[in-house]
Hints:
Blueprint: E1 2-4, H1 23-37, H2 50-63, H3 67-72, E2 74-77, E3 80-83, H4 85-94, E4 103-107, E5 116-122, E6 128-134, H5 135-141, H6 148-151, H7 153-169, E7 178-179, H8 182-185, H9 192-228, H10 232-240
Helix pairs in contact: 1-2, 4-7
Amino acid sequence: MTEENNAITIDVPDAPTPGNTSADVIADHWRWANAYASSAIVPQHFQGKPQDCFVIVQLASELGINAATALQNVSLINGRPVYSTKFAIALANRAKVFAGPIRWKINKAEKPEDLSVTAYAPLNDGDLAEVTVSMAIARAEGWTRNKKYQTIPEQMLRWRSAKWLIDLHCPEILLGFDVADVTEIGGNYLTTAQKSGEMLSHNIASSSASDNHSQTLQQAIENQRAQLEPSKVEEEQLKQNPAPQAGPGKDSEEKPHE
């Protein structure tokens, strides 16, 4: 088993006092949001969207970090903002939640499919917080649909184990935001939005098939009804050529002889 001692950190400047919602501060945040939205440096999903940028500027103020840093490390999945894993790790290390930075232990098994990674950090009371994530868990959870688990499995397990460590021991630093690394968004990995899109497509296809079935059934009913009822042509022929009425004569009823 090997031990990794490198910690991820982010050096950020001072920010406005968290939680300040005065009119002047909000107006200032809105000006910054418009400036960021018109910039080509921010990620594409924030370009031309000052409202979204405003939310992130407010978030940065709450976290006490530079807004540009937050904009570069927040993505949108299915309309919901999520942090990158490295950003969440940096927040945990910066907030001094643990007595030391998050590190990893790598268990390089004989078989690559048995690889596991443990994220750990010392607690202020002397205990050790740790979470282990293995390739077996990755397969069971369906994460291996992302090809990155075949090309860089160790790195992917680092992100996952660190995410779980933060979720378990210091979720308050995330302010309710979820965490997903950029490598989990690309490739063959299905995001929530993609899953919803596939489900919607499936429902539309099922609905179309159901509609076609209903139309076929309706046609069968109409055909059956047409066989039981006289056709309009026959009705018109009967109107134009009415059946002869029986008159007096030999076909009429004979009176009995007295």
